């Protein structure tokens, strides 16, 4: 009987401590949320104006020119084994290609952020970034998301 009362007392103490921790966590989250709302910087307003691209496997994808021939791509993807493949094309040739990973594989939506450098081979062409997933079944490119690369 004494053991039961000790266990009950211990349980009550633990429950009250947990409640206090949850209250502290909630107040910290509110502070962080408030701070992020109040810190409206030029970068954030730039991001708000950025055009977003999406399809069945990619969402909230943005492209940003960060230097003369350098670009930054950010967004979310729901892809097999968290792997995104990409290529930069000029309408005739693939000028650059590669892959990156997200922070979570399908069925979750994972975040990605990568940069690349590319130069036009011919001044009279335009560049297109294509994000895609490679099929685990047959190796085909699937869920292709073409994005025009802004050069000015």
Written account of the structure:
By secondary structure, this protein is of the alpha+beta class. The chain contains 2 helices and 7 strands; from the N terminus they run H-H-E-E-E-E-E-E-E. The protein has helices spanning 2-38, 42-49, and strands at residues 58-65, 70-77, 83-89, 94-101, 110-117, 128-134, 141-148. The protein has a 4-stranded antiparallel beta sheet, with no helix packed on it. A 3-stranded antiparallel beta sheet has the order 1-2-5, with no helix packed on it. The chain is globular. Residues 10-15 and 17-42 have low confidence and may be disordered.
Which spans of ≥5 residues are poorly predicted at pLDDT below 50? Answer: 10-15, 17-42
Please give the alpha-carbon distance between the first and last residues.
79 Å
H/E element sequence = HHEEEEEEE
The total of helices stands at 2
Report the principal-axis shape.
globular
- Largest sheet composition: 4 strands, antiparallel
Radius of gyration: 24 Å
Strand line-up of the largest beta sheet: 4-3-6-7
Count all strands and give the number: 7
- Give the integer mean of the pLDDT values: 78
Query: What class would the helix/strand composition place it in?
Result: alpha+beta
* Strand coverage percent: 35-45%
What's the helical proportion of residues?
A: 25-40%
